[in-house]
Each structure stands twice: as C-alpha cells, then as structure tokens.
Design brief:
5-stranded mixed beta barrel, alpha/beta, two-stranded antiparallel ribbon, 2 domains, Rossmann fold, 14 strands, about 375 residues
C-alpha cells in the first residue's frame, strides 16, 4: 500500500454517507479555510488511507474543492463518486458508469444560425482505466449475496443544469452534439480540470445511474433509486481505491511531472570514486551507503525556523502567518519524535499545511517541499 492517501469526493450527502460506510478509523481533518474532510482506512483489511470530502453541486465548487484536497493531501489518486442520469436505454437503473472521457458541454458560441459547441474534454489515464476495467470483469467488488450491477465504460457529460427531459431543446442538443455520452451530471468537468492542472493526477469518475434524464426523475427518486445507485457506485469506487493503492505505488512523480525511479545507487570499490553530474534533479541525491544515511530532521526544522524569523523580520510574512507556521513546525517535530508510521503521516500533513502558509515566499515553500521529500524517502 502507498503511504499517500486516495481522495474520494462526492457532491451530495447521501453519496458521502455511502462511501463513508466503507471506511473505518475515521478522524476529522480541518482545512485552514474551513473545509472538513474525514480520513480513514478502507474496511475489509489493508492500510490504504482515504480522505473523504463533500464538494456540493456544480462543476465550479467541485473544481475548487478538488484543488484544495489535492493541495492538502498530495494524493496518490482522486475519485469522484455519485449518481447520474442515463442517456441511453441500455444503461439500467442502479448500474454503474465509469468515465473514459469527461465532456464539459456548456462551452460554445451563440451565432445567428444557432449555438455552436466548443467543448472541452478530459480523458482518463490509461493505467487507472485498465485497473478499473479489470476490477469490473472480476465481479468481486460488490458485496456477496447480491446481484452484481453491470459496469459500463464510456464518456460522461458534465454541465450546469439538471437534465430531466428527453425531448427539451437542451436534451436534443446534448444528444446531437455528445451522442456517445452514456450519462449526464454536474461535477466531473470541474474535478477533471483540477486533476489535469496537478500533473495529470490519476482520476476516475464513478457514477451510479439513479434516473434516465427523461422526465421520470421524481418517480425514480421516490422509488429510492438514488440510494440503490450510489450504493453500487460507492462499492465500486472503494474497491477501485484499494486496487489503485496496490498498483500505483511503483511510479513516483517529480516536480516536472515525469515518472521516475525512487533513486539511483552507484557503487565503487577499491580506489575507484563515483561522481555525479546532473543538470536538473527532482527529489533526493544520496552519496554513500543508503542504509547508513539518516535525516537529521531536527536540524532541518531548526534551520527552517530561523528562515521563518528572517522572513518575518523582512516583512515577507505577517505576524499571524508566522505564528501559524510556528505551530505547524511544533506539530511536525512532535509527530516525528515518535518514529512511527502514524507519526510520519501526521508530520506530512502538518508540513503540507506549513507549505500552504508560506507558499507566497518561494524560498520557504521550496524548503518545505525538500523537507517533505526527504522525510518521505528516509524515515
């Protein structure tokens, strides 16, 4: 399992609760801007952590809070889970749709002869798509004793309106312009945009079909199809989170966004010497025997504390930010002193908060990033 959490976001409370039922050991995590997340582990064994958040309806809040979650947790992957309306009759109520593409369908230009679409589209990364398809084929993701809902893979259309008609001008336009979309909803485009801007973070949108977007939404909601649909989506998404946690850790990403190895080891014997010449290095370079190298994190934190004081004196930080940064530094030191994985996890969260506080001072933000990388690789 990877030490980095997987973030799962939902738009509605009932979607949030459906995912929450698959998590154990939940604890509250407060973002400095007021957003509340819950962090827990996937039930059924394993140590994969999940950070769960609620974004509300619409692509704009979904984009903002997805960006916030990515910055806060530096996740291994991002999943968005919820309900959607089916656009094709072969997609049954309660079945699951996993996005291969996300269409932001409201972009366009209005001309004398009508509205001309100018869509944006995001395609899911190949590896998460392959993992999701393999999971769907296995049929092992749904609780035993119940019929396994069918899983469909295809494009999802994300806009800013609830479509509940098959014959309205809007419905006809969507069908004509985005004819291959399997389902329609209101958040996936925002989430996909946030993920794309963060080094193309692996992102999967999982939707349970709760209505047919054809004027029967009141009836299907009254028949509890929302609850049944989101139960299937949550089951698939949490099973997928477990698989992503197992499969994705073999790749790490540097600041330039390119996958790279954790490290390179050069060994010399006798009178030979090893030299290293490089242009740009992302991550850590260690000279000597790795097993003998230990990070003097106390000294690093002390140096950083001194940099903070200098930044305050120079007017680069105000008093309130300085005090908040000092608190996070104290939390880092206390957590690392335990020399446990749990302490390391708490320290990493505090360091990310610290980085957010000093992000406007490039030297400080860069230093925090290097401390995060060093602690992740050594402790």
């Amino acid at each position: 399992m990877n030490e980095r959490p997987i973030v799962i976001l939902t738009a509605l409370d009932l979607e949030y609760q459906a995912v929450r039922e698959h998590l154990i050991g939940l604890r509250l995590h407060r973002h400095r801007a007021g957003t509340r997340f819950e962090i827990g582990r996937l039930s059924g064994g394993g140590a994969q952590e999940v950070a769960l958040g609620l974004v509300g309806k619409g692509n704009q809040p979904a984009a903002v809070l997805a960006e916030r979650a990515i910055g806060e947790f530096d996740p291994l992957a991002l999943l968005f889970v919820g309900v959607a309306g089916a656009l094709w009759p072969q997609i049954g109520l309660g079945e699951v749709v996993v996005a291969t593409h996300v269409y932001a369908y409201h972009g366009g230009t209005s001309e004398d002869d009508g509205f001309k679409a100018r869509p944006r589209v995001w395609e899911v990364s190949h590896e998460p798509d392959q993992i999701a398809r393999h999971l769907a084929r296995s049929g092992t993701w749904f609780p035993g004793g119940a019929a396994v809902p069918k899983v469909h893979f295809g494009p999802i259309a994300a806009g800013e309106v609830v479509q509940d008609s098959a014959i309205s001008a809007h419905a006809r336009w969507v069908r004509r312009t985005y004819n291959d979309a399997l389902a329609i909803e209101m958040e996936a485009a925002g989430v996909a945009q946030a993920a794309h801007l963060n080094r193309s973070l692996p992102t999967v949108v999982v939707r349970g079909v709760s209505d047919r977007a054809d004027g029967t939404k009141v009836a299907t909601d009254g028949a509890n199809w929302q609850l049944r649909a989101v139960a299937g989506a949550a089951a698939f998404a949490t099973a997928l989170a477990r698989e992503l946690g197992r499969e994705l850790p073999h790749v790490t990403t540097g600041r330039a966004g390119a996958p790279m190895n954790e490290g390179v080891r050069n060994v010399a014997s006798g009178n030979a010497r090893v030299g290293v010449q490089a242009g740009h290095i992302y991550g850590n370079v260690s000279i000597g025997q790795p097993q003998e190298t230990a990070l003097d994190w106390a000294a690093e934190l002390a140096k950083f504390r001194e940099k903070l004081r200098r930044a305050l004196k120079a007017g680069e930080l105000d008093e309130a930010t300085f005090a908040a940064a000092e608190e996070e530094l104290d939390a880092v030191a206390e957590s690392l002193s335990t020399r446990t994985e749990q302490g390391k996890s708490k320290a990493m969260i505090a360091l990310k908060k610290l980085r957010g506080l000093v992000v406007d001072v490039a030297e400080l933000a860069s230093k925090v990033t290097s401390i995060i990388a060093a602690i992740r690789g050594v402790l």
